Amino acid sequence: MHASILLSAIALVLPLTLAAPAPPRGPPSSPTPSEAAKTPPPPPRPLRQPPAPTPIQQQHRLVLVALGTGTQNYTCSTDLTAAPAAIGALAQLFNASCALSSDPTASTQSLGSIEESASIGAHFFLDSTTPDFDITGLGNTEAKKAEEIVSPQGSENVKWLRLTAQATGTTSSVKEIYRLNTVGGVAPANCAGRTAGEVVTVDYQAQYWVYA
């Protein structure tokens, strides 16, 4: 008897339960801070490289634009009336990709404020003709000069270059590096007032467009 009463009660309640309206659906809830943090930022505007000695090969991908700040280095010969000979460069590198994406027309000098951030690497020479780039996150790139043109922005600035990565000594995936938008760095006309073998350093800045 008790079983029949229980079944009768279920029979009365079940239709009411099934007929009950669904709760109202409000607007979607806002993402939690942790969810919002996972949302990727909008992609930066694509960067357009300044005119270069040779057009970029289509299979190459821009991975970094670095601001280089340092010195172009020269040495005097025994003929002090002659211009000193180039022996390389030494520069700290700073990530300029975001700054140029935000303002594609930014000049090299105006990028100087990013030097307040941490350096991402260094540019130096292994010998007088072998430039090297040691960049955090990319690795080491030993390069060779492939082309050069006089700076379109004035002969008082060092030349624009196209550098190609060499298999020997390179641990990165970098294929080419372009030195562009140079500022300063040109050697003096002679070594008057100096001594033979003296090293002459000339401040310079440049943008290094790095492709892999």
From TrEMBL:
Q: Key word Ion transport present in the record?
A: no
Q: Which Pfam family is one of this chain's hits?
A: DUF3455
Q: Where is this region: Disordered?
A: 21-54
Please give the organism: Neocucurbitaria cava
Q: Where are the membrane-spanning stretches?
A: none
Signal peptide stretch: 1-19
Pro residues bias: start-end ranges: 21-31, 39-54
Tell me which UniProt keywords the record has, alphabetically.
Signal
Q: What is this protein called?
A: Malate dehydrogenase
| Phylogenetic lineage | Eukaryota, Fungi, Dikarya, Ascomycota, Pezizomycotina
Domain of life assignment: Eukaryota
Name the PANTHER family on file.
MALATE DEHYDROGENASE (AFU_ORTHOLOGUE AFUA_2G13800)
InterPro entries xref list: DUF3455
